[in-house]
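The material for today's practical consists of a large collection of protein records. Read left to right, the backbone structure tokens trace the chain's path through space. An example says more than a description, so a record of this kind follows:
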Amino acid sequence: MNAFDLSTLQVSGMILLLFFLFLVLFFEFVNGFHDTANAVATVIYTKSLQPNLAVAYSGMLNLLGVIMGGTGVAMGMVKLLPMNDLMAMPFVEIGSFVGGVLITAIAWNLGTWYFGIPCSSSHTMIGSMLGAGIAFFWVHGGEGVNWEKASEVGLALLFSPLFGCLAAMLLMFLAAKLIRNKEFFEAPTERAPKWWIRSILIATCGFVSFFHGSNDGQKGISLFMIVLMMFLPAQFALHKSFDAAALGKQLDEIQSLSVIISEEKGTSELYTKINEGVEKLRPLLTVPTVDRVAVRKELGGLVKSLGKVAADEKGYYSDEDKAQFKGFEKKLKSYTDYAPWFVVILISLALGIGTMIGWKRIVVTIGEKIGKTHLTYAQGASAEIIAAITIALSTFFKAPVSTTHVLSSAVAGTMIAKNGTQNLQRSTLTNILLAWVLTLPVTMLGAGGLFYLFRAVFG
């Protein structure tokens, strides 16, 4: 299983699948030159690196970040959607859904890039997914959008720019106290800065690029996996290591431990849910051909119940019990939360190559149009240090974050630290704020509308 086998599809389905996978890679390519311009803005603007060298350097670190970033953020994005219902739909429904999401996300990204407005690819993608998910729910009912996961994602995207702005302000104040060299706080000249300033800026650019890849690259991985699971659920609904007999033994272990605990302490609501989850899975493992989509659905419910054991605050479970259930949860999640190596490589290449072109429009905005004064070396370094830390923390906690909004707000924070809010260019900030406010509603309406349109035309 999980070999990339198209033989199960008809010709029309095969063409549609390959077309949508191409669109996913194109979205990630656009994400590269749209978002990663933020990473190279300071080193190019300050003449610390030549543009061609800067974007190649950033592109390679983006690629490395995707490869090393894991799949925690990607799986969180997948869980926004009613995948169990979507995998059971005919190709017209699947094509309408995926087409609405990808075309909307790409169009909004290209439009904001063309006008040089730093806009979040994360907001764009999430808005498109939510819009199509809501439209799908209105038509078919079922599970609908996972609003619990959507709220977690929304909070991460909402508060990260505020954190970036405030943290960059504090870092600038700290730098002014600790660094006495005045050149570090001057605007770039026609000459390249001194070697130590260049080293700092090159390092911060590298950190932002790497962590951008580790976080934003996972969003492309999630899109790729969504398309694969919809078109080829028998191959990609579960990891290739899935074995019905092995899962059966794990279910026995889970149930045995639950029984022992219940005999000692009495039956709890969570104990009941875990056992219900086990009993729903058992019949699915005894049929000649395992329905992987059905197994994936029931695994999701059981994993959620097992995860709640670790959060038990009533003392029903001991620390040892929690550790054992955590181990069960981790093993069961490995069947559903994964991405094949070829997906990671393709996405990393698309993001890395996209980084190497189209950077000029956003670089000028970051360097000259957020503040009334040109970006200084200290401001560039401070903004990128904060952006790198914010993105790294978000990836660690498996939350998506907007590199664009974090870095733009961090640059604004450094401008405020220098001369107060009067040092900000209101027109640029208004455009960025409008893009930030409008991205979710516009992409939700766009993706939902295209879903209905495609169903009407091709259904």
